[in-house]
Known about the structure:
Layout: H1 3-8, E1 12-17, E2 33-39, E3 42-48, E4 65-68, E5 71-74, H2 82-87, H3 89-93, E6 105-110, E7 129-134, E8 150-153, H4 154-161, H5 166-169, H6 178-187, E9 189-190, E10 211-212, E11 219-224, H7 230-236, E12 245-246, H8 247-258, E13 268-272, E14 274-275, H9 286-294, E15 300-305, E16 315-318, E17 328-335, E18 341-347, E19 353-359, E20 365-366, E21 377-381, E22 386-393, E23 403-409, E24 414-423, E25 431-434, E26 446-447, E27 466-472, E28 477-478, E29 496-499, E30 503-505, E31 508-511, H10 513-533, H11 542-552, E32 554-555, E33 571-572
Parallel strand pairs: 6-11, 6-13, 7-11, 13-15, 15-27, 27-29
Antiparallel strand pairs: 1-3, 2-3, 4-12, 4-14, 5-31, 7-8, 9-10, 16-25, 17-24, 17-26, 18-23, 18-25, 19-20, 19-24, 21-22, 22-23, 27-28, 30-31, 32-33
Amino acid sequence: MNCREMALSEDYVDILLDYQITREVFGEMEVELCSVPAGQGMYVVYVNRNVPVGGSGSLYVIPQCFGLMAEGSGGGRSFDTFALTDTGIRQTQLPPLSLTGRGVVIGFLDTGIRYEEEVFRYSDGTTRIMSIWDQTIQEGEPPEGQIFGTEYKREEINAALASENPRQLVPTTDTIGHGTALASVAAGSNLLRNRQTGSIAGGTAGDGMEFLGAAPDAEIVVVKLREAKEYLRDFRLIPEGAHTYSESDILLALKYLDSFAINLRRPLVVCFGLGTNQGSHTGKSILSRYMQNMLESRSRSIVVCGGNEGNSAGHFEGNTCVRRGEPYEDVEIRVAENTTGFVAELWGRIPQSYTVSVISPSGEAFPSGMGTLGQNFRHRFLYEKSTVNVIYNLVEEGSGEERILIRFEQPAAGIWTIRVFGVGECTNDNFHIWLPIRNFRTEGTYFLKPTPYTTLTIPGYAEEIITVSSYNDENHSFWPESGRGFGKNGEISPGISAPGVDIPTINGRMSGSSMAAALTAGAAAQFLQWAVVERNEEFVFGRDVRNYLIRGAVREENLSYPNREWGDNGIIVSSE
């Protein structure tokens, strides 16, 4: 079986390694594998799912699963410039600055794009899209350095647009709409015919301006991610129908997007509108470190949504040291009817260690008391006919801290309790437990005593990326659903806040943190046009883009800084 077949086959799992693995690792065992460089020193390895790869630690290089961070909220296809104006983006599009993203590339790795839409074309009808890598179509040639999917370049897209049936020549599209919406908010434009003047200066909604994004002259590169393999969905117990994307495919997509950046003369902004709760929430996940490494090169900026988990009751923060006597704390989870399963992750902090006991709604506990540190166990609760699998990882590879993975399979409806025991001397450090993002769990499954903070989705804690929380520009209130900081160990994030409620897209109005990220990605493209393309500050790094946006935003006088909701130093993107 060749590498392409391995990448596509359900018989082969994807694992992520920061070294080049060889067959010699397996000794005399006959093993088929394929190792694909993903950039930044990382490799995606495809290996038969029945082959052991390094014991229990292998579970922690299995890719994380990411979900979408916006949904429609009605309102049809109506358009207004309120969000653009409230952020100051609209003002900088106009003279004298005239910053429209010209000369900048914005990259999207998402659900694809409807390339036929007018908002992604020039005034002569040709495309503003430089390239599309569709990971789901296998009939054509993949990009250079990749082993699956099909790449469609600008020339092919233009030929398709000039034909009577574009999708017959270039069959890629976006059936979900999330990626198309993000691209339209960040880089869409349909000035119809204000483009006759070659300027957007006189355009207003209803006056020839049918749609306008934040960086309407930026060029676009798109990766349409394939859905995660079934084995990965099964391991993470993700419900059927939830759109799920694998970290391994995301790393390959980032490598592809990065190839379009040319230091000093071709800046790149990556807009990331997905998120996950899987990980330590410290900026040390594989994806977080990968993005951080990308930003070591000039003329790049990465904008990440902060997620929609602030009001989802999916995070618990506790402390076993505050209880008198035996050091433990009970964490209660309400499980809804018809829940097929979910995974909870407990993260400690050095030097404190923890063990857990799981108690079913009928009161059966396993283990009956404090478990054995580092012991993995699987138990079937007889009355509920439910299975719980607890997997300990005392020193997790990325963060170096303890992680306990608790898999609930076919859990009965009711109140389940995770009894968390502190081991050894009490250090008064808090532990955290995260449930999957709301997209990945049954509605009605949540913590009874949740904590709304430390709810930014991963990779939102990486240090130099721009992580965006969401507010409502209609009344300047923080959006309750938005993820909030800080990190588990006090990492300061989000960096900035932007409108994310009822944002006009080419699909109609949508709400979610990915909308806020798309607006901010457009603002980053504006800045990179001014700095790099127009040579005002040519040698900028990602940290510089982040810090310029932070310095240019507005602080609310009645807030303390840094702020868990509004961002680093409590600032919001605003024109006020």
